[in-house]
Amino acid sequence: YNYFGAAYKTQETVRAEIDLLWTNTPGGIPGNDDAGTLSAWYVFAALGLYPAIPTRADLVLSSPVFPYAVVHLNTGRQLMISAPQASVANKYIRSLTVNGKATTKAWIPAAMISSGGRLGFQLGSNPDSVWGSGPGDVPPQATKPQTVRGSDLTVPAGTQFSGPVATVLDEDTAAEALSATIDWGDGSRSTGTVTGTGGDYSVLGQHTYRRAGRYPVTITVSDPGGITVTSAAAVATVSPR
Asked: For the whole model, what pTM was predicted?
């Protein structure tokens, strides 16, 4: 559900699985533990975290069972999880802070698995259909944007260029969740705007070249998990004024 902007349903479903399928009896594990696989699932679920994508270390969020937990990482650092209202009834995320900063993202990046940090959950008994529902809140799915292709451009020196500088094909990530940086080849960089729908996007940028010449333009696109792809150099042909 986190991938469809309905994070509260993930919180509801995971907690139902914990409560209904796991019991304090000899048959309390739902099936063969398979060298700890089911036990590991329970630990992740109780912490409110889960590595949903096999090729990535990002963690998708549900709601913690415990008011406080500390995960000791193999880097020597700690991932501290606070959810003071956690209870059987309070299973819905009302708000979240990551290292003290408020966020509505329904996942945390892979970097926190090595660097550690602090997750501060505020939980309640009523579902919040808004938290985690924005296009930028959805967890990353693909390992990288599929294709980033630069577009050649022609512009007179001293005249501002404004328009598309690259195309991006990425069916797994919304345009709003992608970020772009443009290296204009003359020592200048700026932030591009990713627009479009359906996985077929354009990167728009603005720049003014001061001198005539040919400049290599490269565009770097990053997804929410920090995976980046840089285009092969396009050419900006700048004519004299």
From this structure: 0.66
